[in-house]
Amino acid sequence: MLLDISLQTDPGTISDDPVMEARRQIEICNACRYCEGFCSVFPAITRDKVFADGDITQLANLCHNCRGCYYACQYTAPHEFDLNLPRALATARVESWERLAWPQAPARLFQRHATPVALMLVVSLALLFWLISALPGGGDGFYAWLSHGAMVAIFTPAFLLPLVSIGVSLRRYWVETGGGAVTGKAMAQAIRDAGRLRNLSGGQGQGCNFEKAERFSDARRHAHQAVMYGFLLCFAATASGTVLHYVFDAPAPYGFWSMPKLLGVPGGLLLVAGCAFMLVLRRKADPALGAPGRSGGESAFIWLLGLTGLTGLILYALRGSDATGIALAIHLGTVLALFLLLPFSKMAHGFYRFAALVRDAGDR
């Protein structure tokens, strides 16, 4: 197939700059358009002929790394164009997370390495063990080990400060990508796409090629859905407990048929199952189609997310026993590490991708 438009860059010149390299490959894709019916990235590409840096950032975050375009492409190596669009967009994507994060230094550290993630977990665990041993409890259930007031004092700033950080990052993203006013229709469409994880099906409903070559599968989509809905159920469980405590004057502990437990137990199970499934799938995936040098940090965060659900389930199973204090410290330490890493780890991708979906829905 002949390329039918002039390219802004030399199609055969590979760049070390992530944005420049992604632009080179996107321009070739825009000239070819063989993958026009694939995920949302390709219809978005066809809306432009010249791509600014902000356009590359938007397209990179709109990509869900399903990898179908790579296996369909006629310009991959050994062709002189040497296209690997999943890798190019993944590299530009993580570069944008690190560059737009506030502050930047922790994002660059935690995105690249597993060791800092593990260290943050160890420090959080040590802090919670020390607090439980040093501070008097006050109440029933878990509060007998660490009072409600102490938990609020620890976790309120640990939750709010990362949200402020993410808010600053998303504002930077929106400005860089040229996002305008958000309409209700665009927001509703983005919520539907995010809820179904439509782009993880390759956009055609047949599944993606993440696991192996040309094998289509919805396994990765289902794993992400388990993690996403598990996390949301756990968050809803915590929120419902907060409402019961402050609005209805009904403090913990709660029985199994209470809202916090009916939401939290299934949420924890989904979170653990989804994270375990994702780790298995990552072992099957071709590392050459992802962002180089980020595998350790990504895997470490999946482990941390899964441990958050697992330690919560273990704590519930051990309630009322002599091991409750130890289980409580481990669970709260894991949750604390998760919250503190929220803006700087792979978890940030959910916020950026939702913003990309909102922007794309508005463009459409």
From TrEMBL:
It comes from the Bacteria. The chain crosses the membrane at residues 117-136, 142-164, 226-248, 263-281, 301-318, 324-344. The keyword Transcription does not apply. Keywords: Membrane, Transmembrane, Transmembrane helix. This is 4Fe-4S ferredoxin. The lineage of its organism: Bacteria, Pseudomonadati, Pseudomonadota, Alphaproteobacteria, Rhodobacterales.
